[in-house]
């Protein structure tokens, strides 16, 4: 069998999106040189002639989706550790018992490697609050649970653990040997349109996977038993009609209990209004947004559009929770990296929601809350008003032009409160502007920022003013760090050890209370804080610190942190009082998380001064 290297398989996986990808993008993704990427592509085409099309201007591309899926699906290298774990789970669930030695031989791995993989699978099931585990007795592997639970296990693993893929349904086809996902999808679209049921693309993917698992399990002789079924006749009617359509189109036969399974599935996707429930959820939304304002200093309370969208989301979430139909989010990792503060607020919201519904939320569901907050923050920014005084020799004659020219600078609404001359410069203190625009050179006003206009407020001036307003909106984060809270060259075995060490250092300086470590570990259970690029930023769900500080630890060797390599740890103590220093801190982290070379450089520093200069992008004096 022709075998690609693990890196070559990752390149092929990127080509599943059927779009051109530049060698620069691939080199950044895989952290290797452009030349290495070109050599890998040459090697792929030697194994599979013509598979990868190369363009000097556009990059690389493949239109042979079927071959890509086949190569990726058949390879043991596809790192698919999650890919292999899904197949291990799937095969164990396909029979009542499995001899571990025969199974290991079939997988071309040692029984000890298989045992480690089973341990990993069981840990993930535990983290996701499943009660079922893969058991071993007399060298036989088995899982004791009913068919409904088995399907939930497979769905969870497929949608939440095997999640390094694009949004397109074709990525899942290699997981199903006897079911055509495209056919199920088309049948479902026609059916849903007929009944005027509108669902998002991601919900359609979720529905398609649920149905595919039902069909494949039925074909294998694993029909659903007696299950608790939704009583609403509307959902039962939908299920009966849809099941008849599947049988008619694809010549599959199902037992009557599958109607109940499908009725529960429809109940998790299709909303029916309940006024009592909506009233309770409105209270939950308002209470949570009040808490966010107190804890984070961001006021979402006036955004009625956000409240409406959160209400609809929670009604849908309640349905999904009751019928085990959670959503996945293929953009989850990008959201976590690019919007860490908003994702953190979403974790706080999720904590309230989990308590209300008595459930466990996956990171995928939490990231959908972040999307709602992202939209709201953009709307809030558009209402962001800044007061400006203009220092000009032209007097009031330029007022109309200046006011119109800078009325809006991107999301900032500019209010020109007055134009003054040099003779009136002392009056600026009574006017209390956010910024002074000066047409005079070398003007300094104590306590008030001044921008010197270069070219009569041309586009370059406008962009410079915008950059300055952004800087003024946040404060330098250097105050958050202290030299005796910086530790380089340390060795720890796991994330719990690092968290304990840094919490003890913060407690010694009276920056956090005694239970701070437990609060952080609780946060890690909800959503781990390893964001990629060698970084983790552990902190509690709520702002429970005594002072705003960040303890830093740079490890000699990286450790595994929620399946990610971590070498640099920022453990944050966040006090309840609002602090704009953290806005600068998180903004710098966001930039760092998207700049691998800078991140790698930071992970190798040995001194506090060196760390501060790289992190702050400027010379730093102790």
Automatic annotation (TrEMBL):
Sample GO molecular function, one term: DNA-binding transcription factor activity
Q: Which of UniProt's keywords are assigned here?
A: Activator, DNA-binding, Repeat, Transcription, Transcription regulation
What range(s) does the HTH deoR-type domain occupy?
A: 4-61
Q: Where is the PTS EIIA type-2 domain?
A: 479-618
Q: From which domain of life does this come?
A: Bacteria
**What InterPro entries does the annotation carry?**
BglG_antiterminators (IPR050661), DeoR_HTH (IPR001034), HTH_Mga_DNA-bd_dom (IPR013199), Mga_HTH (IPR007737), PRD (IPR011608), PRD_sf (IPR036634), PTrfase/Anion_transptr (IPR016152), PTS_EIIA_type-2_dom (IPR002178)
- Tell me if 4Fe-4S is a UniProt keyword of this record: no
Residues in a coiled coil are none
Asked whether the UniProt record includes Membrane among its keywords, one would answer no
- Per the database record, which ranges form the PRD domain? 276-383
Question: Which protein, by its recorded name, is this?
Answer: Transcription antiterminator
Q: Which organism is it from?
A: Faecalicoccus pleomorphus
- Species lineage: Bacteria, Bacillati, Bacillota, Erysipelotrichia, Erysipelotrichales
């Amino acid at each position: 069998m022709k075998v690609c290297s693990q890196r070559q398989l990752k390149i092929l996986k990127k080509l599943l999106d059927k779009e051109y990808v530049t060698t620069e993008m691939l080199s950044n993704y895989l952290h290797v040189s452009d030349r290495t990427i070109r050599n890998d592509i040459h090697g792929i085409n030697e194994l599979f002639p013509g598979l990868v099309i190369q363009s000097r201007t556009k990059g690389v591309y493949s239109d042979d989706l079927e071959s890509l899926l086949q190569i990726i699906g058949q390879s043991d290298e596809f790192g698919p550790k999650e890919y292999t774990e899904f197949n291990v789970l799937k095969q164990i669930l396909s029979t009542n018992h499995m001899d571990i030695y025969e199974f290991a031989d079939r997988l071309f791995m040692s029984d000890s490697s298989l045992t480690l993989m089973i341990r990993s699978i069981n840990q993930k099931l535990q983290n996701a609050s499943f009660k079922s585990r893969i058991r071993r007795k007399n060298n036989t592997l088995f899982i004791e649970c009913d068919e409904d639970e088995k399907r939930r296990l497979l769905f969870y693993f497929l949608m939440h653990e095997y999640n390094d893929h694009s949004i397109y349904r074709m990525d899942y086809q290699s997981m199903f040997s006897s079911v055509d996902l495209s056919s199920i999808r088309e049948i479902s679209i026609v059916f849903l349109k007929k009944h005027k049921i509108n669902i998002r693309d991601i919900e359609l993917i979720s529905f398609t996977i649920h149905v595919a698992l039902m069909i494949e399990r039925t074909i294998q002789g694993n029909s659903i038993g007696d299950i608790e079924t939704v009583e609403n006749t509307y959902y039962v009617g939908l299920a009966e009609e849809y099941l008849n359509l599947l049988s008619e189109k694809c010549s599959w036969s199902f037992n009557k209990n599958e109607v109940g399974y499908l009725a529960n599935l429809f109940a998790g996707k299709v909303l029916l209004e309940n006024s009592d429930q909506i009233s309770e959820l409105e209270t939950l939304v308002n209470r949570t947004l009040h808490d966010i304002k107190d804890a984070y200093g961001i006021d979402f309370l006036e955004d009625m559009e956000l409240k409406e969208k959160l209400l609809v989301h929670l009604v849908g979430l309640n349905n999904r929770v009751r019928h085990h139909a959670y959503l996945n989010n293929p953009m989850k990792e990008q959201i976590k990296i690019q919007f860490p503060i908003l994702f953190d607020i979403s974790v706080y919201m999720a904590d309230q929601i989990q308590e209300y519904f008595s459930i466990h939320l996956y990171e995928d569901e939490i990231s959908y809350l972040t999307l709602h907050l992202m939209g709201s923050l953009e709307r809030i920014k558009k209402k962001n008003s800044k007061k400006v005084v203009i220092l000009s020799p032209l007097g009031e004659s330029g007022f109309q032009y200046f006011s119109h020219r800078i009325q809006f600078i991107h999301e900032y609404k500019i209010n020109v409160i007055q134009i003054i001359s040099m003779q009136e410069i002392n009056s600026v203190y009574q006017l209390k502007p956010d910024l002074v625009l000066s047409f005079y050179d070398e003007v300094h006003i104590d306590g008030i920022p001044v921008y010197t206009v270069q070219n009569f407020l041309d586009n370059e001036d406008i962009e410079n003013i915008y950059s300055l307003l952004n800087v003024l909106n946040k404060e330098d984060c250097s105050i958050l760090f202290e030299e005796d809270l910086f530790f380089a060259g340390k060795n720890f075995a796991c994330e719990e050890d690092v968290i304990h060490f840094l919490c003890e250092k913060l407690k010694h300086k009276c920056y956090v209370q005694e239970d701070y470590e437990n609060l952080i570990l609780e946060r890690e259970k909800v959503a781990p804080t390893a964001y990629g690029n060698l970084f983790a930023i552990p902190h509690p769900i709520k702002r429970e610190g005594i002072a705003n500080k960040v303890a830093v630890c740079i490890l000699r060797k990286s450790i595994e942190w929620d399946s990610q390599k971590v070498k640099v740890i920022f453990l944050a103590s966040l006090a309840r009082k609002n602090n704009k220093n953290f806005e600068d801190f998180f903004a710098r982290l966001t930039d760092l998380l998207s700049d691998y070379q800078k991140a790698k450089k930071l992970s190798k520093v040995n001194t506090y001064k060196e760390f501060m200069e790289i992190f702050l992008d400027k010379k730093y004096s102790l």
